[in-house]
Amino acid sequence: MAKKTVATLQSSSKRLTKASKMVKSPKSGSYTFVESVMPPEFVNDWLAKK
Length: 50
Description:
The structure is a single chain. 12% of the residues lie in helices and 52% in strands. By secondary structure, it is mainly β. A hairpin with a 2-residue loop joins strand 1 and strand 2. The longest helix is centred in the C-terminal third of the chain and has 6 residues, at 43-48. It starts with a strand and ends with a helix.
């Protein structure tokens, strides 16, 4: 299950969004957070990926 955290960042003329999700490690079973900065259009696709 992904935890959705989205913050909007503004830099010059581009709008960027920082998204983070919780990913379960297949080896240890523990959870880690993966963060990425991208345009807002790609956030839902990125969160849907495993």
